[in-house]
Amino acid sequence: MLLIEKINKSYGKRQVLQNLNLQINFGEIYGLLGPNGAGKTTTINIICNLLKADSGTIQINNQPVSEKSKAIIGVAPQENLLYQGLSCKENLNFFAQIYGLGGKLRQLQVEKCLADVNLSDRANSPVETLSGGMKRRLNIAVALVHQPKLLILDEPTTGLDIEARYHIWELIHNLKNQGITILLTTHLLDEAERLCQKIGILKNGRILAEGTLSELQNLIPAKEIVTIETEEEEKAIARATELGFTHRRYGNKLAFWLPKTLELKEIIATFDNISLASISRQPITLEHIYLEVTKHSNHKLLRI
Ligand SMILES: Nc1ncnc2c1ncn2[C@@H]1O[C@H](COP(=O)(O)OP(=O)(O)OP(=O)(O)O)[C@@H](O)[C@H]1O
């Protein structure tokens, strides 16, 4: 569906995308993660033909990106693009007109998109009277009004409460089930874990790791992660190192990668004669992988 090969982009002397490769298959949800300034918005702008790459190729549905490809892409930007004084229906009608939809088709599409985002009962409400979550959903409806094949969602749930997030996550699932291919950027790792079939981690304009969640989990050679609280951290690290356990700090928490699954009593025995205030076990999550890839430079590049 989308194939990006060796894209480079500089702003003046600052190179913000470096040999970027990215492939999204038809019907999948791809999560593009990365710290602030990694190059996510620049990548989106290039896909949408709003910016030109300095070199490299980009194809959508086997066609090079051009003005024509705008018809098959829908974008919901980070900041809602809505007219506050107009109703939901008027906003959708306006954007549908811009995309050249007329007559019955426009009316049908406006109604379908309102239904898709669960706002049919607010069709005539001015945008300024909607909640934050409803505005985000309407922003997505605007991106869908011309029936795009590729939907780009730039941080779709940033700033929303958990219930509003659930609504958006359900909406994204439903859109995938309708056969729409989705590229989403997010800073919320649990959001990517929940929604995305494939995840790419971008830093300094390069994809450092890419794959399914289980493929990415191979970047951390551990069965599980154990976090401990102790006054004797140095002693605990020395003991774990002797046993071949890698240690990490997640925030201010000291953690160890366990290369094999151990019984709790075996874990406690590992730290024999070290006073432990607490001990907790966790599976490897995207958060651990993300920190590993973005903070430690000697990671392996993983691709499918
Ligand atoms: N028009 C511009 N001129 C100069 N530098 C720019 C321009 N747009 C972006 N940059 C720089 O390019 C880099 C990548 O920016 P970009 O907005 O693509 O990152 P991002 O991953 O989307 O970040 P965020 O998560 O904060 O939105 C940043 O260092 C940014 O300062």
Automatic annotation (TrEMBL):
It holds the Pfam family ABC_tran. GO terms for molecular function: ATP binding. The keyword ATP-binding applies. Residues 2-229 form the ABC transporter domain. Keywords: ATP-binding, Nucleotide-binding, Transport. The keyword Transmembrane does not apply. InterPro entries: AAA+_ATPase (IPR003593), ABC_transporter-like_ATP-bd (IPR003439), ABC_transporter-like_CS (IPR017871), ABC_transporter_ATP-binding (IPR050763), P-loop_NTPase (IPR027417). SMART domains: AAA (SM00382). Belongs to the ABC transporter superfamily. This is ABC transporter ATP-binding protein.
